[in-house]
Each structure stands twice: as C-alpha cells, then as structure tokens.
Design goal:
single chain, Beta Polymerase, domain 2
Length: about 425
C-alpha cells in the first residue's frame, strides 16, 4: 500500500487558508480521530507554518483526504484543491526528511521542527494509527534530522534578533554567568532575549514600564530578578543591557548613561538596542567604556548567519540522500517480502517433490545419508535463489519491476501480507 503526503505550508498557501487548516497541539488528538474515519494508518504534522497529513491508502482512494481537510476547516474542497501539495512514496519520504532537517522551514535549519515531527509520531502512536510503515518513516526522519544537526552547522548561528543580541553580548563580554544582564521590555522580543540569557546561565534582571508584565516574565523563567523600579540603579549594576520596548522615544538618554558611568568609570557597559524606534540614545557610545549596538548592527550579523547556514545546505542534502537510500531499501524490501516468501515456498515444494522421487529410485539409505542428501538439495536451492533474493531485498530504485519479473518467470502465486502493506 503506497504512502501519500498532502499538506499546506508558508511557501505554497496564504495564511487565510493555513489558519483554518491548522491543527494545534491541543486539537491534534481530535484531528486524528476525525482522520481515522478516512484512513486507519496516518500521522498529522502541524506547526505554525504547515499542516501535513501522511497516510497509507489503496491507489485511487487518496483523494478522500480532500474531504478530511474540508471537514476540518469548513472550506470547500474546490478552494483547497489548488493549494494542497501532494507527494507519494519516495517523494513523500524525501519531503519529510527535508522537513525534519529544517530545509523546508521559513527559518532554515530551525531546531524546533524536529521536536514537532517527534510529537507527530507520538500522537499517531497514542491514537493507534502508527503502523509499521508510518513508525519507521517518522523514526528514520527524526534520526536523519538529528544526524544533520550533529554533523553540520545548519542549526547553528542564530537568526532571531533576540538570540543574536545575546550571542553578541556573550562574544564581547564572555561568559554570561559572570555578568549581570538587564532586559528592558517584557514584550515578545523581551521574552526571547530573557530566555536566551537564562539558557546561558546569565544573571538576569527584567525592567518594564508595567511591573505586572515584568513579574509574569520573571515568574515564567524561574531564575530571573524583578527590577527595583529605579532604572538608573539597575543600569549601575548591569554589565549588559538589552532594550526592546515599544516606546516612541529614548528610554535611556545620554545624560542618564553619563550619570551612571560616574559611579563605575572603569567598568564597561554594553547596550544592545533592538527596538524601533531606538530605545538608547546613540550619543551614549561617545562616553568612555560604553558600547552601543542597534538593530542594523544585528541585522548585518543575521545576514551573515543566514549565509553560513545556507553554506551547509549541500552537506545536509548529501546526508539526507544517504539516509533516504537506507530507508527506501527497507521500504522496497518490505514490498517484495511476499514475493520472496512465495519464491522460497515454491522452490521448497519442488525440492521436496524431487527429493522424494529420487529417494524412491535409490537403494535404502541410512538416516545420516538421507540427512546429507536433504542438506545438499537445500543448499542448491538457496544458492540458486541467493542473487535474486538479494536483489529483491535491496529493492534498488532502478529495479522497481524486478518483483513482477520474478513472479512471471517462476509462475508465482503471491498472497498479499497485510502486515507488509501497512
């Protein structure tokens, strides 16, 4: 039974459709339950930028997936048909491997998608829909994704401005665990920057105009400090300041920085301003031992990092090609297993028939001689079939019709093994 993949993503479908087709983590179980009415063996991969269904179906029945998407989203099938991309067997495997490796992501090399592929498999298992083929496909894709990140730098070099800000701070001042970092702002960028600092073991203080929002961020991190309320006092204690508010004016002016530096003239103070409009007065960098970096500086680093990741793509594709070949050989061997079984059964029937007829024409033999004769005929059969069976097990791409040829040459009646189908 072939495997199909149908889906939508950021590069092929507008957001107005993607948001209706989205199957969030909390609704993944419900999505699988609905999908079960159409296909028994399937998995759903849903992220912020994609919704994909991988399923096993008899040829000609795969089109029912449109009805599932229509039922889930409330959209007409006609509207969906032109936006859904479709893959079958090898193309579907290749697509999932690239997704797991981060090559098909909006941010190339993103690490989060690997966890999402893993969660997709776990959900399919929980729903009882992860057949042997689904299980092996997703497990191998996850393994390939891990290998890619282990052997290449595709997921290194931060691309989010908040992460780059923290990287830049660490590159300049060294180990963040030995420095005090102040994050000004508790919006999305502030959360990301704060999380990045904490992950590196930094001593973090959060300052925000709304103390309630700052407390929410501090509580969620578990290892940060809420600012006292006096910004100048916090600046005096900080080594690094990451500012990312939505204020329409400077949050930290030249005069404030000058006042702070009078209390610590020999201790450097580094500002990383990722706000637009800028939070930090650019003139502050004229003060001795004060360093100011703005979002343009970080965007330049972001561009460099993106180029570094793109430079890894060829190496990633080489690794994926190796992993795909390994998986596809297993897939083909599974398809050919009933043919191999039928071939051995027919050969054994012929061997036993000829063995019995031969025994009748010979003088009486002792058990030892009969055993030798039996072993010899088995060895002849095995050696004759060895090359053919090896080729069937390998399931090389160039030999897709080998199983049909073997069935015709040996006049085999092949019974379909339901286990190898799913």
């Amino acid at each position: 039974m072939p495997l199909f993949a149908y889906g939508v993503n950021h590069s092929a479908t507008p957001i107005r459709l993607r948001e209706k087709l989205a199957i969030t983590t909390s609704r993944l179980g419900a999505g699988l339950e609905m999908l079960r009415d159409y296909y028994r063996h399937a998995a759903i991969l849903s992220t912020c930028n994609r919704t994909e269904v991988y399923f096993l179906a008899h040829p000609g029945t795969e089109g029912s997936i449109l009805r599932f998407f229509a039922e889930w989203s409330g959209l007409p099938e006609a509207d969906l048909r032109q936006h859904l991309y479709t893959y079958q067997d090898y193309e579907a495997f290749h697509h999932l491997f690239e997704v797991a490796a981060g090559l098909d992501s909006m941010i190339i090399g993103e690490y989060e998608v690997l966890g999402q592929v893993k969660h997709s498999l776990e959900a399919a298992r929980k729903a009882g829909m992860a057949s042997l083929k689904i299980e092996r496909l997703f497990s191998h894709a996850i393994s390939a994704g891990r290998r890619v990140r282990s052997e290449t730098a595709i997921s290194q070099h931060a691309l989010s401005i908040s992460s780059i800000a923290v990287d830049q701070a660490e590159n300049i001042v060294g180990d963040l665990s030995q420095r005090r970092t102040l994050v000004i702002g508790a919006g999305e960028a502030g959360w990301l920057a704060a999380e990045a600092v904490v992950k590196r073991g930094g001593h973090l203080t959060v300052f925000n105009r709304s103390a309630e929002k700052a407390k929410l961020l501090v509580d969620s991190l578990g290892s940060a400090t809420l600012a006292s309320g006096n910004l100048l006092d916090e600046l005096a204690m900080a080594d690094i300041v990451i500012s990312c508010t939505s204020a329409p004016h400077h949050v930290v002016g030249h005069g404030q920085v000058a006042e702070v530096m009078k209390t610590r003239p020999d201790r450097p103070l580094m500002f990383i301003d990722i706000a637009v409009p800028r939070d930090i007065d650019e003139k502050a960098k004229e003060i001795p031992n004060v360093y100011v970096y703005n979002i343009d500086d970080l965007n330049h680093i972001c561009h460099q990092n993106r180029c570094k990741r793109l430079a890894e793509v060829d190496r990633v594709k080489t690794i994926l090609a190796e992993e795909l070949e390994r998986f596809y050989r297993w897939w083909q061997s599974l398809r050919n297993r009933p043919v191999i079984q039928a071939l051995y059964q027919k050969a054994e029937a012929i061997r036993l028939e000829q063995y019995e007829e031969t025994i009748k024409t010979l003088p009486p033999l002792d058990e030892k001689s009969l055993g030798h004769l039996d072993a010899m005929t088995q060895a002849i059969v095995n050696k004759l079939l060895h090359t053919v069976v090896d080729k069937l097990k390998l399931g090389a791409v160039a030999q897709n019709d080998l199983d049909a040829t073997v069935k015709e040459l040996f006049n085999l009646e092949v019974l379909v093994d339901e286990k190898t189908e799913v």
